[in-house]
Design goal:
The complex is a heterodimer of chains A (587) and B (315).
Chain A (H helix, E strand, L loop, with lengths): L24 E12 L2 E13 L4 E5 L6 H8 L7 E10 L7 E2 L5 H7 L4 E4 L13 H12 L4 H14 L5 H6 L7 H13 L5 E5 L7 H18 L2 E6 L2 H7 L2 E6 L2 E7 H6 L4 H9 L6 H4 L1 H4 L2 H10 L15 E13 L8 E13 L3 E5 L6 H8 L7 E6 L2 E2 L5 H10 E4 L3 H4 L6 H11 L5 H14 L16 H13 L5 E5 L7 H18 L2 E6 L2 H7 L2 E6 L2 E7 H6 L4 H8 L4 H7 L1
Parallel strand pairs in A: 3-8, 3-9, 6-7, 7-8, 13-18, 13-19, 16-17, 17-18
Antiparallel strand pairs in A: 1-2, 1-4, 4-5, 9-10, 11-12, 11-14, 14-15, 19-20
Chain B lengths: L1 H28 L4 H9 L7 H10 L6 H13 L13 H36 L3 H16 L2 H15 L12 H31 L1 H8 L4 H38 L5 H10 L3 H29 L1 H4 L6
Helix pairs in contact in B: 1-12, 5-6, 5-8, 5-10, 5-11, 5-12, 6-8, 7-8, 7-10, 8-10, 9-10, 10-11, 10-12, 11-12
Classes of the chains: A alpha/beta (587), B mainly alpha (315).
Chain lengths: 587, 315
């Protein structure tokens, strides 16, 4: 990697963090307001914030906390109905060139953005123009701010692509965004943000759309490059664990206000505000290990017996769990054809996957995007047919089920989807959504069903007042509770939970996970839990299978797999969990 | 790529065949007898000689079964012979060939005006940050689609020909005679273009890559030109094929209102006189124009949108 190529200036040219130097960014009493149909909605209410040269400051908060509005106010890209309604935003540690961004006219903004202020956007999948070549998109920022020739800007763009660690940068420069992976696209965007060596980079949830191992490498790159140029970073994140790993200082926001700020270690070790403590407790990656492995730790005897039963067998081959299996998956394979039939290019999305889930237990499939975990879930539910292998649910082959047997299977296995905002029909009320499976299976009279719906809503801790609302009128957490209630309507035995909390805020996620654990215990449910988030898996499942490129690379008790990974890939995954650095620091 | 082209060409041919078949079936099933219509127009009195009727039937192949007639007509059409007009006795191909250039000129001007006008309106409406101006501009296209073409034509005639004689009211002479009919035809077309483009540009302006471009320091004008327009035009391109169809349909009204010779006028007269060979020929030609334009759009699309040709190469 030739990160030097990106910079002509070194960190020594910039003031060192701390000391008497002026901050690069000073935010004082910032107010941001959105005009809504029912009057003005304040999103940021008096935020104070300093970022010094060479410093990484993390702005942490949940959705609606105002962290994103603060970031957008700093780069002057608030949506049309939003405006800075008070306070000052000063950019620049040199008094001669310092600017008040709050009152900057539009014309002047175009000289500041890209040159003195970079933005690394949230979702690299959509943040690059799909019809323009990568090289031209990097060159554009250079052409805007330096009056260089098209050819010189393009040549420099290739150097930048090299500096952000893209292989064959000259080739990549001629490609279009859809030809690059998400991680590569985020590298390109980092290159664009840093191309003109800005004083400050605002990174708005830069890796929330990326897989955990990719996330780590991208954040390493950002840290490496900004450290070289002494560029300050304002890191916006919902993930306290990620902030803990990456930031020098942490600023916690809630309801438009800063509730806590300080050096990262200090905030983590001794949080002063109740909300920070709540966030810390909810952040799966920061939780102490014992708490995570609770189901296993509570039953040390079982662990010993498993070990004793197969002292030398490699863990991958161990059929995990004891007791009668509710779900048995054997040699499951699903391939997809890529391109024309004659080329014979196939993707083995699921490749010889074998595992069993005892009744009443929770088995987690973890892996990154494209690892085949969701395809496996679809095969388990009989929503897709395998090319080879079998899925047996309570002894019945899922693939062969027809008619009444299939209907019965559909009743006994239910799915909870990843994104509750799209998994509920927007036109159905909550009551109707929960009632739908009952009606589909012709269960009970209308009066009985009404009673059942009320009971289900109570079980997921939703107020009966919500029954007449529609999904748009609910919060994300409430929607997922509705989806869970719907899945429980037919008294299923197996719940397939496909990333059930990945779209939720951490504190909401923690409560939904608690609900799931509680329901499992009370109703004797069996869970197949699909997740990319190892920290969440640790809280939920006794057994885990790690998937990579369609194969199950490692299976075992969650605590064993995570504490002592045997497969190098598992080790990499575990090492990439945000909060790892922070946890180690605390020891 | 060759597979893609082959696929599209075969599809286009199938659409043409289907159009021919549907038109033939409808015309064959019409409760009218071309021969008696023809004799009504030419004969002097009420008397019709049955022998003459049979002779004419045989000449036009109407004495054969429906399948033979269909296959015969299909075979002749494939050889480029569209038959002869029942009303005038002239070859249908010649009639259409004479009418098409007039309509092509009209269509080209109308389409040009529609694309330029509609594009300008959509650009202005999405580029401006004044909500009031945007609201006003975006209210225009629905109005343009809603007003009937003949009404617009008559109003234009009334104002710009009769009250202020700026343009000729009727005829095919010179460019000046093209202006009013082209404007009349362009209004609904331009309104459609504006609606589709404004929608696409609005979506493009909200896309995250626009935020990235603004964060690079690009001005709104630069973003509009470099990022928004290109992204919005691609999906709107598919509209072009539909618009060409609309022009042909619109020419029926416009050429009648402005008393111009052309494709639309021929359609109108052939339908009124129930001149079945001409109607069938017109349907085939119109379908062919429509299919060819759509085929060209389909073939051009992968050349313009990199996502369709250059496959994933991500490692």
């Amino acid at each position: 990697m030739t990160a030097e190529a990106l910079t002509t200036r070194t960190a020594d040219d910039r003031a060192r963090p701390g000391g008497d130097a002026r901050p690069v960014l000073v935010v004082r009493d910032l107010h941001v307001t959105y005009r809504g149909t029912d009057g003005d909605v304040p999103a940021v209410r008096g935020v104070d914030l300093d970022v010094h040269a060479g410093e990484v400051v993390a702005l942490v908060g949940e959705s609606g906390s105002g962290k994103s509005s603060t970031a957008h106010a700093v780069v002057g890209l608030l949506p049309a109905n939003g405006a800075v309604t008070g306070g000052a935003l000063t950019l620049g540690d040199d008094p001669r060139t310092a600017l008040d961004l709050a009152t900057l006219p539009e014309r002047a903004w175009s000289r500041v953005r890209g040159a003195r202020l970079g933005l690394v956007p949230q979702d690299p999948g959509v943040a690059l123009d799909p019809v323009q070549r990568i090289g031209d998109q990097v060159a554009e920022v250079l052409r805007i701010h330096h009056r260089t020739s098209r050819r010189a800007a393009y040549a420099r763009a290739v150097e930048i692509l090299d500096a952000v660690g893209l292989d064959a940068p000259a080739v990549r420069a001629r490609q279009h965004p859809h030809q690059l992976s998400g991680g590569m696209r985020q590298r390109v965007l980092i290159g664009i943000a840093l191309a003109c060596e800005p004083e400050l980079v605002v990174a708005d949830e830069p890796t929330s759309a990326l897989d955990v191992t990719v996330q780590r490498r991208v954040l390493d790159l950002l840290a490496d490059l900004t450290a070289r140029t002494g560029t300050a970073v304002l890191l916006i994140t919902h993930d306290l664990a990620l902030a803990a790993d990456r930031a020098d200082r942490v600023v916690v926001m809630k309801d438009g206000r800063v509730v806590e700020h300080g050096a990262t270690a200090q905030v983590l070790r001794a949080p002063r505000h109740a909300y920070t403590r709540e966030l810390l407790a909810a952040a799966p990656g920061l939780a102490p290990r014992d708490a995570g492995g609770a189901p296993t730790a509570a039953r040390p005897a079982a662990r010993t017996s498993l070990r004793a039963a197969s002292p030398v067998a490699p863990r991958e081959d161990v059929a995990v769990g004891d007791g009668p299996a509710l779900l048995e998956v054997d040699g499951l394979t699903r391939t997809f054809r890529l391109g024309p039939r004659r080329t014979g290019d196939v993707l083995r999305a699921v490749d010889g996957v074998t595992f069993r889930v005892p009744r009443g237990s929770a088995f987690a499939l973890v892996g990154e995007s494209g690892s085949g975990k969701s395809t496996t879930a679809r095969l388990v539910l009989g929503l897709d047919r395998p090319d080879a292998g079998t899925v047996r649910f309570d002894g019945v082959a899922v693939a062969g089920a027809r008619g009444d047997a299939l209907r019965d299977l559909r009743r006994r296995t239910q799915l909870v989807h990843q994104d509750p905002s799209t998994a509920l029909d927007p036109r159905f009320t909550v009551a109707r959504a929960v009632d739908e499976p009952l009606r589909a299976h012709r269960v009970g009279t209308p009066a009985e069903r009404r009673e059942r719906v009320a009971d289900l809503l109570a079980q997921v801790h939703l107020s009966p007042d919500l029954a007449r609302r529609r999904p748009a009128e609910l919060s994300g957490g409430q929607r997922q509770r509705v989806a869970i209630a719907r899945a429980l309507a037919l008294d299923p035995e197996l719940l397939v939970l496909d990333e059930p909390t990945s779209a939720l805020d951490v504190s909401v996620q923690a409560r939904v996970l608690e609900l799931l654990a509680d329901l499992r215990e009370r109703r004797g449910l069996t869970y197949l839990f699909i997740s990319h988030d190892l920290a969440v898996v640790r809280r939920v499942a006794e057994h885990v299978g790690v998937m990579r490129a369609g194969r199950l690379v490692e299976t075992g008790r969650t605590a064993d797999v995570f504490d002592d990974p045997r497969d190098p890939y598992t080790a990499e995954l575990v090492g990439a969990i945000p909060g790892t650095h922070a946890r180690e620091d605390q020891r | 790529m060759t597979r893609y082209v082959l696929h599209r060409v075969v599809g286009a041919a199938a659409v043409l065949l289907a159009a021919f078949t549907a038109a033939f079936a409808v015309l064959y099933l019409l409760p009218s007898d071309p021969v008696s219509i023809m004799l009504d127009q030419s004969s002097t009195g009420g008397y019709v000689d049955p022998a003459q009727v049979d002779a004419l039937r045989a000449r036009y192949g109407l004495d054969q079964g429906p399948l033979q007639q269909y296959l015969g007509a299909l075979g002749r059409t494939l050889r480029g012979d569209l038959g002869t007009s029942v009303a005038s006795g002239a070859p249908v191909a010649g009639l259409i060939a004479a009418a098409l250039p007039e309509t092509a000129r009209l269509a080209a001007l109308a389409l040009g005006l529609a694309v330029v006008g509609g594009g300008a309106l959509a650009t202005a409406a999405t580029w401006t940050r004044s909500a009031r101006l945007r609201g006003f501009l975006l209210a225009l296209p629905p109005l343009g689609v809603a007003v009937p073409t003949f009404w617009v034509g008559l109003v234009l005639l009334q104002v710009l020909s009769f009250r202020y004689p700026l343009f000729p009211a009727v005829g095919n002479r010179g460019v000046a005679s093209l202006v009013l009919p082209a404007v009349t035809l362009a209004i609904p077309l331009g309104a459609t273009v504006a609606q589709v483009l404004a929608h696409g540009m609005g979506a493009a302006w909200r896309a995250p890559y626009v935020e990235t471009a603004l964060a690079k320091g690009a001005t709104r004008t630069r973003v509009q030109l470099h990022h928004v327009t290109r992204n919005a035009v691609l999906p709107a391109l598919t509209l072009l094929g539909v618009l060409v169809g609309n022009v042909l349909a619109g020419s029926v009204v416009v050429e009648t209102v402005f008393s111009r010779q052309g494709f639309g006028r021929l359609v109108q007269s052939a339908v009124t006189t129930q001149d079945i060979p001409v109607v069938l020929g017109l349907v085939v030609v119109a379908a062919a124009v429509f299919v060819v334009v759509n085929l060209l759009v389909d073939l051009a699309y992968p050349l313009l949108d990199p996502r369709l040709t250059r496959g994933r190469a991500a490692a």
